[in-house]
Write a structure and sequence with these properties.
This protein is α/β, with parallel strands linked by helices. It contains 15 helices and 13 strands. Helix 13 runs parallel beside helix 14. Bound molecules: 5-hydroxymethyl-3,4-dihydroxypiperidine.
Length: about 450
């Protein structure tokens, strides 16, 4: 059996709005996702996160599931509106829930890994312009200081932002995520302010002398050309700038891919958010890069597309319930590319997993496709490690089924099934298979999932 290095971190990941519920408890204020999901037509079937998986009340049971699973780290996010619920009000007691959760984890031998922002911006901050407003960077810095001073002793791993590409582009440009705006100029400003707030938080973390690790998580997608034509190769470059380099280059090279901004000037009206010194702040050295990988993109040149001149094609692999192609080689290619272009920075895969149409039959969920998906991606990660890649850990998305943003509860990513009528948790076959992987610290064959429980 192919083994992973000793000390390799096996984990699972979730996010506050997707699992917590208790949206009006403990002094929590409204977030942009409350507003968005309560607006008819924004989320499939009108679903929202009011109750979600009720993790806020059931966290001890959930930690027991994690303990039985055997993970050494759990990635979760803090809901900012629990800490700064309204303008001018800091509610430190809003962190009590996270203190209890982190303590429970540590008592069970599980290291907390905290995402500071996983998209639930306090609504009052959005009312003042949200990520489009440079002042939000200072609000995030204030929030960071509270987190570091209140939770710094309990949390050894910090992730400033989860997928700032989604928070800016999907939230302010495409409008399918909260706050639901369709304004490219705001999207571009939001992206810059998210990055700047990340850099300021890192600087603060260092200044406070805290001894854990701090990094950021990006959703990265390797891009492949539909044909060998030079036009398609150029399309790959453009999509790569848009999807990956827009965030990687400032973080690791203190520069933006200028050609991208020239290309999209006609929709942004010019990129005016960068002030002198910003890029140095953004490029503050990181302890690790968090990588969320799900699928690849295949693109062709298409002059009729006004934004990037690109057309997406479906790859030929099987597809998940999200209609995302299963393409494990993409993970290997992506990790190798990061090493080549950005140095051998320590990497954690902070999310990887798949949604399938799971069914409970006689109390059991036989999610063989998810097991196959995970097994093939673990294999790709192992290949990277064998070549000397600096991969430190792997967090499966997700511990349990949850609120999948604009898709509501219709997409199940969990290795634990959640019955949304009773809120009962039912570990799927993938949970028991992953348990064996962790126990062996090695590539347990997917076929053994049938008997893993
Ligand atoms: O559920 C999301 C998560 O919140 C961010 N990364 C992708 C996951 C699956 O879509």
């Amino acid at each position: 059996m192919r083994k992973f290095p000793e000390g390799f971190v096996w984990g699972t990941a979730t996010a506050s709005y997707q699992i917590e519920g208790a949206w009006r408890e403990g002094g929590r204020g409204p977030s942009i996702w409350d507003t968005f999901s309560h607006t008819p037509g924004k989320v499939l079937h009108g679903h929202n996160g009011d109750i979600a998986c009720d993790h806020y009340h059931r966290y001890q049971d959930d930690v027991r599931l994690m303990k039985d699973l055997g993970i050494s780290s759990y990635r979760f996010s803090v809901a900012w509106p629990r800490v700064m619920p309204e303008k001018g009000r800091v509610w430190v007691k809003g962190l009590d829930f996270y203190k209890r959760l982190a303590t429970e984890l540590l008592e069970n031998g599980i290291r907390p890994a905290v995402t500071m922002y996983h998209w639930d911006l306090p609504q009052w901050i959005e009312d003042e312009g949200g990520w489009n407003n440079r002042d939000t960077v200072s609000r995030f810095e204030e929030y960071s200081e509270i987190l570091f001073s209140e939770l710094g002793d309990l949390v050894p791993m910090w992730i400033t932002h989860n997928e700032p590409w989604c928070a800016s582009i999907l939230g302010y440009g495409v409008g399918v995520h909260a706050p639901g705006l369709k304004d490219w100029r705001r999207a571009y400003r939001a992206a810059h302010h998210l990055l700047l707030s990340h850099g300021r938080a890192v600087r603060l973390y260092r200044a406070l002398g805290l001894r854990g690790e701090i990094g950021i998580t990006l959703n990265l997608t390797p891009i492949y050309a539909a044909t060998e034509n030079p036009e398609d190769a150029a399309a790959v470059e453009r999509q790569d700038m848009f999807q990956n380099r827009w965030f990687l280059d400032p973080l690791f090279k203190a520069q933006y891919p200028e050609a991208l901004f020239r290309r999209v000037d006609h929709v942004t009206g010019g990129f005016d958010a960068v002030k002198p010194g910003d890029l140095d702040v953004i490029a503050a050295p990181l302890d690790f890069l968090g990588v969320n990988y799900y699928t690849r993109a295949v693109v062709a040149d298409d002059p009729s597309d006004p934004l990037l001149g690109i057309r997406h094609l479906p790859g030929e692999g099987p597809r998940t319930e999200m209609d995302w192609e299963v393409y494990p080689d993409g993970l290997y290619d992506l990790l190798s590319r990061l090493r080549r272009d950005y140095g051998n920075v320590p990497i954690y895969i902070t999310e990887n997993g798949a949604a399938y149409d799971d069914r409970v039959e006689n109390g059991r969920v036989r999610d063989a496709e998810r097991v196959a998906y995970l097994a093939s991606h673990f294999e790709a990660a192992h290949r990277f490690l064998e070549e000397g890649g600096n991969l430190r850990g792997y967090y499966v998305w997700s511990l349990m089924d949850n609120f999948e943003w604009a898709f509501g509860y219709t997409k199940r990513f969990g290795i634990v099934y959640v019955d949304y009528d009773t809120l009962a948790r039912i570990p799927k076959d993938s949970y028991f298979w992953y348990q064996r992987v962790i126990r062996e610290n090695g590539l347990v064959p997917a076929e053994t999932a049938e008997t893993a429980r």
